[in-house]
Each structure stands twice: as structure tokens, then as C-alpha cells.
Amino acid sequence: METTRIAWSEGIWTHPPVDAVERDGDLIVTCAEGSDAWRTTSYGFVHESEHGLVRPLPQDCAMEVTFTTDYDQQFDQAGIFVVADQTCWMKAGVEFADGHPQLGAVVTNPNSDWSVARMDAWAGRRVRVRVSRSGDALTVRAGLDGDELALVRVAPFPAEAEAAAGPLAAAPTRAGLVVTFHEWFLTASDSSLH
């Protein structure tokens, strides 16, 4: 399968942002205050207001999103969103939490879990996140754009599900978050984990 650049116009928003404008090939997204994706675990609430720009993600395919981590308020986030339905989805990317940019993934089916790792060197940098779908799993890799991508997580995902995926941005605690997305690609899934 050849790598195909996806036009921003090919996606459908899960929840529209305040604004989304194309500029010099980039997509500039302004998030709504309180936007987020989370289900129940530890916090007790359900948030279904994320800004995911998605299109179909078939089996044996991967999607990549590149964005700049130019944000520094609690829970500001950008990355990639993979969704089958309201209770089966995953988000992966960089979220600013507890004073640091954190590389993480939230896997939800039906409740959310969250894995994170501090990535201070990624602050203000251009990051690439890749999610491969194969069989009953999603495989997440990430890295600074231009560097080799490292394995972040392997998560269960229903093999039979019709899924969609694409860029994600959210601002759970403030108004005015603006995220710049640079690229969106569809390509073949990773051939192996290692």
C-alpha cells in the first residue's frame, strides 16, 4: 500500500472546534473550552466533546498525524483519535499535565485508562504519532518529526469494528487553545511490533 496524504477536507469532525482553518497546508484548530474525551475511570465523569477529524481506518492500515506541541496549560492535548463508537475509542499524543508535556494514550472500552511518560524535550516541537490497525490490536508509535518512531503502546481493539481515525485536539480546562497540524497520512500497518 502506498502512503497517501489525506486532505483536511476528507475528515468529519466528531465535535466541531471553535474554528479550523487551512493555512499554507497546515490545519489550525481552535479548541472549545471543556473539550475532552474520557469515560468514568477515577474521575467519575464522561466527556464526549473532543475535536477529532476522522475518516475510515480499515484493517491492516496505519494513520499518521504531525503537529506542534505549542501549548502549556493543564490537559491541553493534541494527537490522533481512533473511534469505533462512544464506548470504544483510543486517543494518543502529547498532553500537557502536571507541568510537563506527556506522551500518552487513553484506551477506552468501555471505561478509560491512561498511560503517560514525561517528554520535556518535546515542548514546542513538531511530533509525529502513528497508529497501526491489525487484527485485534492498535499499535501506537511516536517521536519527534524526522526521528525514528518508538513503540508507545499495544492496545486491544475489536477486529470487526468499523473504525475512523485522524487528528485530535482538546482543551479540557481553558478557552483559546490553538493547535497546528501539519500532515495527515494513510499507509500500510506496521509489519511487526519489533
Can I get a quick summary?
The chain is mainly β and 194 residues long. Helices cover 0% and strands 57% of the residues.
How would you describe this structure to a colleague?
The structure is a single chain. With 194 residues, the protein is mainly beta. Helix content is 0%, strand content 57%. It has one domain: Jelly Rolls. The radius of gyration is 15 Å and the shape is globular. It starts with a strand and ends in a 6-residue tail after the last strand. The model has no long low-confidence stretch (mean pLDDT 97). This is DUF1349 domain-containing protein. InterPro entries: ConA-like_dom_sf (IPR013320), DUF1349 (IPR009784). It comes from Tessaracoccus flavescens.
Give the C-alpha Rg: 15 Å
The first-level CATH class name: Mainly Beta
The quaternary organization reads as: single chain
Topology as a string of helices (H) and strands (E):
EEEEEEEEEEEEEEEEE
Gap from first CA to last CA: 20 Å
Tell me the count of domains: 1
Number of helices in the DSSP assignment: 0
- Give the proportion of residues in helices: under 10%
Q: Assess the beta-strand content as a share of residues.
A: over 45%
CATH architecture: Sandwich
Name the poorly predicted regions.
none
CATH topology: Jelly Rolls
Structural class: mainly beta
Shape: globular
* Largest pleated sheet: 8 strands, antiparallel
Mean pLDDT: 97
Structure summary, number of beta strands: 17
